[in-house]
Amino acid sequence: MGINVEVFCSPGCSQCGHAKEIIKRIADDIGGDQIHLRDVNVLEEMDYAVALGVLATPAIAVEGKLIITALPSEKKLRKILEERLSES
């Protein structure tokens, strides 16, 4: 089944690139189709980002709910995503 994870980024943001790398690494470690990743360019989808409450990038939403508004450590992000997976 899995969970939908959206990474809100802005062009040229180095922290955004790092956030995407971390999430992709976690998704690969967890394996299969457990994490469905989507990159969201805040400039192209500004209305959607604002509706979720994104004020800065990178930001991460799970199942359409903003859960992270700053880049956490890989360990903390892994824990959050694993907890969300166990709830689904």
Description:
- Strands 2-1-3-4 form a four-stranded mixed β-sheet, sandwiched between helices.
- The protein starts with a strand and ends with a helix.
- The chain has helices spanning 14-30, 46-52, 74-87, and strands spanning 3-9, 35-41, 59-62, 65-68.
- It has 88 residues and is an alpha+beta fold.
- The protein has a single domain, classed as Glutaredoxin (3-Layer(aba) Sandwich).
- The chain is globular and about 30 Å long.
- The model has no long low-confidence stretch (mean pLDDT 90).
- Helix 1 links the parallel strand 1 and strand 2 (35-41).
- Helix 1 crosses helix 3 (74-87).
Quaternary structure: single chain
Biggest beta sheet attributes: 4 strands, mixed
**Overall number of domains:** 1
CATH-derived architecture: 3-Layer(aba) Sandwich
Mean pLDDT: 90
CATH class: Alpha Beta
Number of strands: 4
Beta-strand proportion: 25-35%
Low-confidence stretches: none
Helix fraction, binned, reads 40-55%
Q: Looking at the structure, what is the overall shape?
A: globular
Give the structural class. Answer: alpha+beta
Essential attributes:
88 residues, Glutaredoxin, 4-stranded mixed beta sheet
Spell out the blueprint of helices and strands.
Layout: E1 3-9, H1 14-30, E2 35-41, H2 46-52, E3 59-62, E4 65-68, H3 74-87
Helix pairs in contact: 1-3
